[in-house]
Structure formats: structure tokens, C-alpha cells
């Protein structure tokens, strides 16, 4: 018998098992209690529900496999499938719980990387716009980093790296949004604190050039010219072709200032690192 025939017969057998269970009740017969059904029957029923677009129902049936047959191979598979089904149903806490159980029991299994990645996704998919609390963003970054560091050779590491960068950019965007608000209100010191976070902690994001420009605006407004000039020097070194540098250059020259490192502040320290090639 060919492998194709075996797969067809196996699929047909699985279908008949699910169909026979699903038929109970349809023709007036009582549905078979889950306790009376085998692990395979429960698992295949859950798979059928998942394929038919009923992920929450599938997840709960996978849980029944784990509950009734806790030490079986079916339970191991059901635990992973439960995590996925709950995630598909957007029951993120339940998805994390199942994935974390899987990692506790099978930390070295081939599906462990996917379990960790699902945990990260359960937070990542809850990231909200920058005007709201960013707790899920911080959690997503932590779990994405865990995926990258623990499973660098897995199929999920690259995707985790991409999502990590996007989440980091999102956090930087939050700092910029708050900083702009303070700047608009004339609370320059508070605005500086926000823009400084972007420059120091989120320098690889797309917001760094604007953060440096906003720092120049703040420092010029406070009469702190050394700091403004140093911010301009860093901006010119890394982003000379950007519109933010052009605007900053106009602001500085209007005050008779140049974009050059001056003084001994935190920006001067960063400027020295840039020149030495330790910070980009």
C-alpha cells in the first residue's frame, strides 16, 4: 500500500470517528460523555472544531484530553494545540497558561520554541496605540527577547526579531507622543526627559532624529546653548540628510550657533561615543 493510500485511509478513519461522535444527538441519540471517549476521539473532535472555525470549543476539548489522559502522548499534543486554539480565539491568558505548562513539562521538545513564541504573540497582539497604557508592549518585548535568545535557530527567531523591533519602535513612539505634549505646553524639562529616553534607550528606532531635533527646541527655549549645539552635532553626524537636521540647523544658525559638541553634559558623552563608533 502506498504512503498516499495510507494517509487517505487514516484521514477517512479520523473523519468517521469525528462524524460518528458528531452524529450523536443529531438523530435523537444521546451524545457520548467525554469521560467515555478515548483520547484520540477527543483530540480528533477538537481538531475538527478548529478546522470548522470553532477555536474556543476546540481549545476546551483539547483541555479535556489533557484532563482525562494526563500522561498520554495525546495529552502532550493537546496541550500545544490548546495553546494555539485559545490564541486563535483571542483568549490570550488561557493561551499563555497552556503554552507555559507545555514549557514546564517539555522545555527541550521540538515545539518548545513555538510555545514560547505563542506566549510572546499573546502579548504582542494586545499592543495598543501610543495614547494608551503600554504594559503589553513591555511584556511582549520581554517574551520576544526570550524567544530570540533561547531559540536562535528556530523558525520563529526571525519573526520574533522583527516584532521586537516594531514593539521597541512603538515604545519610542509613546515617549515621543508624551514629549511633544509637554513641549507644546511649554514644560521643557519634562519634555527633555522624554526625548532623552528615546535618544539613550531607543536609538535604533525611527524616532531618534526627531527626538534630537526636539531636544534642540527645548534647550534653545531654556537658553541652554551648549546642550542644543551638542544635540545638533549628534543629529548632523547620524542624520545629516534628514529634514530634522535641516530644521535644527536653521534653529541653531538663527541664534548664531553651530552644531558642535560643547560642555560636559549627557549629550556630550553620547557624542564622544558616536565619534568612537560605539553608538550609532
UniProtKB/TrEMBL annotation:
What the entry lists under PROSITE patterns is as follows: PROKAR_LIPOPROTEIN (PS51257)
Going by the UniProt record, its keywords in alphabetical order are: Cell outer membrane, Lipoprotein, Membrane, Palmitate, Signal
- Residues of the signal peptide: 1-23
Q: Name one GO biological process term.
A: Gram-negative-bacterium-type cell outer membrane assembly
Q: Does the keyword Signal apply?
A: yes
Membrane-related topology note? Lipid-anchor
In this chain the Outer membrane lipoprotein BamD-like domain maps to 38-231
What is annotated about its quaternary structure and interactions? Part of the Bam complex.
Q: What does this protein do?
A: Part of the outer membrane protein assembly complex, which is involved in assembly and insertion of beta-barrel proteins into the outer membrane.
Q: Record's family?
A: Belongs to the BamD family.
Q: What is this protein called?
A: Outer membrane protein assembly factor BamD
**What organism is the protein native to?**
Algicella marina
Classification from the root reads: Bacteria, Pseudomonadati, Pseudomonadota, Alphaproteobacteria, Rhodobacterales
Q: Which gene encodes it?
A: bamD
Amino acid at each position: 500500500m502506498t504512503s498516499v493510500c495510507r494517509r487517505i485511509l487514516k484521514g477517512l478513519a479520523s473523519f468517521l470517528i469525528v462524524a460518528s461522535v458528531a452524529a450523536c444527538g443529531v438523530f435523537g441519540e444521546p451524545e457520548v460523555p467525554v469521560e467515555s471517549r478515548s483520547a484520540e476521539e477527543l483530540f480528533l473532535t477538537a481538531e475538527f472544531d478548529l478546522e470548522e472555525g470553532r477555536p474556543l470549543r476546540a481549545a476546551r476539548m483539547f483541555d479535556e484530553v489533557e484532563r482525562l489522559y494526563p500522561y498520554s502522548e495525546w495529552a502532550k499534543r493537546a496541550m500545544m494545540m490548546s495553546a494555539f486554539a485559545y490564541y486563535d480565539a483571542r483568549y490570550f491568558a488561557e493561551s499563555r497558561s497552556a503554552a507555559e505548562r507545555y514549557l514546564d513539562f517539555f522545555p527541550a521538545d521540538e515545539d518548545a520554541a513555538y510555545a514560547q513564541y505563542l506566549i510572546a504573540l499573546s502579548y504582542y497582539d494586545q499592543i495598543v496605540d501610543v495614547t494608551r497604557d503600554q504594559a503589553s508592549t513591555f511584556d511582549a518585548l520581554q517574551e520576544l527577547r526570550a524567544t530570540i535568545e533561547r531559540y536562535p535557530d528556530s523558525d520563529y527567531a526571525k519573526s520574533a526579531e522583527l516584532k521586537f523591533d516594531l514593539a521597541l519602535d512603538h515604545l519610542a513612539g509613546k515617549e515621543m507622543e508624551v514629549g511633544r505634549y509637554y513641549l507644546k505646553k511649554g514644560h521643557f524639562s519634562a519634555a527633555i526627559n522624554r526625548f532623552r529616553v528615546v535618544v539613550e534607550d531607543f536609538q535604533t528606532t525611527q524616532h531618534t532624529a526627531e527626538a534630537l531635533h526636539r531636544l534642540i527646541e527645548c534647550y534653545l527655549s531654556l537658553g541652554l546653548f551648549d546642550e542644543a549645539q551638542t544635540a545638533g552635532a549628534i543629529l548632523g553626524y547620524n542624520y545629516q540628510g534628514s529634514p530634522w537636521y535641516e530644521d535644527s540647523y536653521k534653529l541653531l544658525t538663527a541664534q548664531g550657533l553651530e552644531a558642535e559638541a560643547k560642555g560636559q553634559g549627557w549629550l556630550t558623552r553620547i557624542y564622544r561615543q558616536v565619534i568612537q563608533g560605539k553608538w550609532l
